[in-house]
Amino acid sequence: RNTITPWLASAMIATAASRIARHPLQRMVRSHATVAGVGAPEKSIYAVMVALKVKPGMEEKFIEAALDDAGCSVRDEPGCRRFDVVQDNKDKTKFAFCEIYDDEAAFTAHKDTPHFARWKESSPNLLAEKEKVTFCKNVFPASKGANWDSDRGAADHKYFKSGSLALIHAPHYVKKDCVDGFIEAICEDARDSISEEPGCLRFDVLQAVDDPQCLYLYEVYSNHDAFEYHCGTPHIDKWKAAVKDMYDDSHPNAIDGKIAAYQDEIIRIGRNVFPPDNWEYKP
Predict the structure, then answer these.
(1) How many whole angstroms separate alpha carbon 66 and alpha carbon 87?
(2) Given phi > 0 = left and psi -120 to 50 = alpha, else beta, which region is 159?
(3) Helical H segments across the chain, by residue range
């Protein structure tokens, strides 16, 4: 019969603790512990949703600069949970960032990093217009303790960097008296998408901190066929019917009295430039 001595037990515990401390998901574990702690208040993550338009012919240089900023942010900043870069399928000069930080202080710290300084220096020569930035809090998943991390220590190989996923980065502007109803309807759609669709990897609902009428959707599908599958589901039909009259054409961002025209300018439906396909996307 095998006997575990007190010394061996202590060594096993120390080894396990050391492995956990070095694991790429350590930040997620710490986050779960904080949220689950007795008396610990529930807090929101701090999301930065950015829509960018690049000068024609500068797409590759933009991607190079974006990969530097995104990769260094996730790897080197303890408060940066993910920094996804999306390139639109139809207009290759359109990009988007989905940046997730522990809180606003972590984002402030991000702006003091060498890689952000490099980004600020290079981006003006690459962008066709000023980027559109929206600061958000999470609505779904509701918990800051959900898995927001993208880095899981995956294999680093060019095969996984083909950008085969389908990502949706889309704002929705709704009437003031319809915000709660829209949130209820979209959260139901998000839950059903994740639970009923094998190809839906992520469905985040975010709300602008300075404009509660702006609800941002960030969706990730295993490929573009999975997104097409999503578009035909009964739950998205139910959501469309519920919210069709909730959009606010009187919003200041509306173009010629149509908020849909502005939303169409900002939405990005495309591929993942970063992270690679084999990083973590599931909530």
Answers:
(1) 11
(2) alpha
(3) 6-22, 26-36, 59-76, 104-110, 114-122, 179-196, 224-231, 234-243, 259-266
93/127 Cα distance (integer angstroms): 9
Tens of pLDDT along 98-143? 999 999 999 999 999 999 999 999 999 999 999 999 999 999 999 8
Question: How would you class 54 by CB atoms within 10 Å of its CB: exposed for 0-12, middle for 13-18, buried for 19 or more?
Answer: buried
How are the residues of the chain apportioned to helix, strand and coil, as percentages rounded to the nearest 5? 40, 25, 35
CB 165 within 8 A of CB 201: yes
Q: How far apart are CA 278 and CA 157, in angstroms?
A: 10
pLDDT tens column, 18-56: 333 334 434 333 333 333 333 334 568 999 999 999 999
Residues 166-209 have pLDDT tens digits of 999 999 999 999 999 999 999 999 999 999 999 999 999 999 99
Region for 32 from its dihedrals, namely left if φ exceeds 0, alpha if ψ lies in -120 to 50, beta otherwise: alpha
Per the listing, tokens 């522990």 go with: 102
- Closest-CA residue to 53 (of 135, 170, 131): 131
Question: To the nearest 10°, the Cα dihedral for 20, 69, 154, 36?
Answer: 40
Helix and strand element counts for the chain (H, E): 9, 8
What is the DSSP secondary structure assignment for residue 247, as one 8-state letter? B
Strand partners, 170: 217
